[in-house]
Specification:
Helices cover 32% and strands 25% of the residues. By secondary structure, it is α/β, with parallel strands linked by helices. Helix 2 (20-29) runs antiparallel to helix 3 (35-43) and helix 4 (47-56) runs parallel beside helix 7 (131-140).
Length: 275
């Protein structure tokens, strides 16, 4: 006789069987399967994609709500995800200006960066792990767009873009070298990676004396649990990584790459160029 806990596991699995093919597809193409791979394939609801589709289809009524394990809830306005070049932060504008050759737009979202590059006559491929985002990018006119995680990309490029905290997809500090090695394998000779992130140590500052309340038992302070909700539906929590520039630079050196800071942003953020 099944105990309640085991019965619930079976019920929970059945509820997610519609996504089982994603796990099987991942297994068929990867030599190493992590718990995060399985979690994303089975349980991610693509709330981000649903919100983008609502906005694209004229059903905009509410915004996305985000939070982390060290910050309270905040609003992510959907119109911001559809911004044009003039509305982009200077870091993003600079990254687009520096892009050349055959370009890969990683985590392309609604396709705003790819669309601007296309309009400039550049060849760009957009990839994202959100089915909804891919559908929206196609509807908006991105010509080459594919539902694909970064680690499954195999083509080579002259410029690889990772914007809107591009280091986030690295998830944890221990995985940074794995992602950097893969990115390196995707670069053509003299190619470049343009990536942005933030030094979030300021979020740990004590307002009274300017000190910091870092918990040394919790690992690198930029490793966060990221929470997303939309229309009262909550997404499965995700790991999200913010990297200060010196840590990113050191990580690049360990895999034989050079990292230089292109510019600082307005709020502890920066744009880096990796070659």
């Amino acid at each position: 006789m099944l105990i309640f806990g085991e019965l619930w596991k079976i019920i929970d699995l059945v509820l997610h069987l519609t996504n089982l093919s994603k796990v099987l597809d991942t297994i068929s193409r990867k030599t190493e399967i992590t718990p995060t791979d399985v979690q994303h394939a089975l349980y991610m609801k693509d709330i981000f994609g649903k919100a983008l589709l609502d906005y694209q289809n004229g059903n905009y009524s509410v915004d996305l709500i985000t939070s982390t394990n060290i910050s309270e809830e905040d609003t992510l306005p959907l119109p911001y995800l559809f911004r044009d070049y003039s509305e982009m932060p200077k870091l993003e504008q600079k990254a687009l200006q520096l892009s050349n050759g055959n370009i890969l737009d990683v985590g392309s979202g609604a396709g705003s960066h790819s669309l601007w590059l296309q309009e400039k006559g550049l060849k760009v491929k957009a990839i994202d792990s959100s089915e909804g985002a891919i559908a929206v990018a196609k509807k908006r006119g991105v010509l080459n767009v594919e539902l694909k995680p970064l680690l499954e990309e195999t083509e080579t490029f002259d410029t690889i873009l990772l914007l809107m905290n591009g280091t986030g997809i690295f998830q944890e500090l221990t995985d940074v070298s794995k992602y950097l090695k893969h990115l390196k394998s995707l670069l053509n000779p003299k190619g470049q990676i343009l990536i942005d992130s933030s030094d979030i140590s300021y979020m740990y500052e004590d307002d009274d004396d300017g000190g910091q309340w870092l918990d040394l038992n919790q690992g690198y302070p930029g490793e966060l649990d990221y929470f997303l909700s939309y229309k009262e539906e909550k997404e499965t929590p995700m790991k999200w990584l913010y990297l200060d520039f010196e840590t990113l630079k050191t990580a690049c050196l360990t895999v034989g790459m050079k990292c230089e800071k292109v510019m600082d942003g307005e709020h502890f953020d920066y744009l880096a160029r990796i070659t």
